[in-house]
Amino acid sequence: MSIKNILQKDNFTRDDIIALLGADNPTDIELIRNKAEQILLDKCGLKVFYRGLIEFSNTCVCDCHYCGIRKSNHTVKRFTLSKEEIVSAAKWCADSGYGSVVLQSGERSDPAFVDFAEDVIRQIKSATVSQSLPQGVGITLSIGEQSLQTYERFFKAGAHRYLLRIETSSPKLFDSIHSSTQNLERRITAIKNLKQASFQAGTGVMIGLPGQSAENLADDILRFKELDVDMIGMGPYIPHKDTPMSIHTEYFNINKDKIFQTSLLMIAVCRLVLKDVNIASTTALQAIRDDGREMGLRYGANVMMPQVTPVNVRRDYLLYEGKPCLDESSEELRKGLDLRIRSLGRQVALNEWGDSKHARTAEKPRHGGVFCGT
Ligand code: 5AD
């Protein structure tokens, strides 16, 4: 079936998805992009939601083979921001009209870390209440696998969205890029537990992993659907020199353009299949091309995560090489982004949590009952 005919459908089979992801001529790619944009505008509207990204600690107990802040990388200078620094970054976001923040860190689940994160969530909530944000900023967490009890504590403290990528839906590929202490099944259970704890859950994968096929990527999208997540964050895999997977640097350099294009197609096809979820246009896209994140928006994404991590530690939070936005102040980055978004004919949402329409239309609200500013 031609790409044009596949795009007439409302529900897509695995073979349809594989064909869409394999599109390799400019006409077909533009047809897919255009349809994804239509679905985005129809289901989610013109608004782009900001989540100020606070990378608050690079200490990590995991040893993922791809990640620059993995436990075994002893060249990394480890840091944890103070509670005051984190709250102050969140306050800047609230004062600047960003309705939400993402708190991201390396993975730890020891009691001191859980207490620290819980307290930070509470403090951010009380410090960011204002007339324009009556319930404070929306808080998304991205701090790894935790127990159901811990998720419940974080939700109770005031966080209401959580990102936990499955990285790939293929157990074999998952095992090949992680240490033996990690497994896909446990990651999936963690996502189910997040939903059980009332979180809006997000997941995602890396694109262009060595050995990853179009079939794998199609299965990733089908897995997102099955997990019924509210948010997707995906980006290209980019090698980091101090990791075991740096042996794939040449593979990456040779295939960079294709990996970038496939990443954009993944966004578009996720939009076509999942329709009303929030999809982030991730920084890793910008690491390959300067306008990567704008391209992500054009292919169906509606969320951006501008850096608000204090500049003095940004260089110590390098998950991959070539990470952009290391030096500019939060204010400079924000102005640049606003302009770029408007030039695409889209709107920057101000003072809104920006929950996904998918979460809002779910039969039973999973957000603690109240939405803010929308
Ligand atoms: N390239 C691209 N993405 C990476 N991540 C970690 N390391 C890399 C890399 N080298 C992503 C993972 C993780 C998220 C926080 O960052 O998908 O879930």
Name the structural class: alpha/beta
Bound molecules: 5'-deoxyadenosine
Gap between N and C termini? 41 Å
Portion of residues in beta strands equals: 5-15%
Largest sheet: 10 strands, parallel
User: Which residue ranges are poorly predicted, with pLDDT under 50 across at least 5 consecutive positions?
Assistant: 363-374
Q: Give the count of helical stretches.
A: 15
Q: What level of helicity do the residues show?
A: 40-55%
Q: Mean pLDDT, as a whole number?
A: 95
**What is the count of β-strands?**
10
Shape: globular
Query: Topology as H/E string?
Result: HHHEHEHEHEHHEEHEHEHHEHHEH
Please explain how this structure is put together:
The protein is α/β, with parallel strands linked by helices and 374 residues long. The protein has helices at residues 3-6, 14-21, 26-43, 83-95, 111-127, 148-157, 171-177, 184-196, 214-227, 249-274, 283-288, 292-298, 311-314, 330-343, 357-361; strands at 47-57, 100-105, 138-142, 161-163, 200-203, 206-207, 231-236, 278-281, 303-304, 347-348. The termini are far apart. The relative contact order is 0.16. Bound molecules: 5'-deoxyadenosine.
Topology diagram in text:
Blueprint (H helix, E strand, L loop, with lengths): L2 H4 L7 H8 L4 H18 L3 E11 L25 H13 L4 E6 L5 H17 L10 E5 L5 H10 L3 E3 L7 H7 L6 H13 L3 E4 L2 E2 L6 H14 L3 E6 L12 H26 L3 E4 L1 H6 L3 H7 L4 E2 L6 H4 L15 H14 L3 E2 L8 H5 L13
Helix pairs in contact: 2-9, 3-10, 4-5, 5-6, 9-10
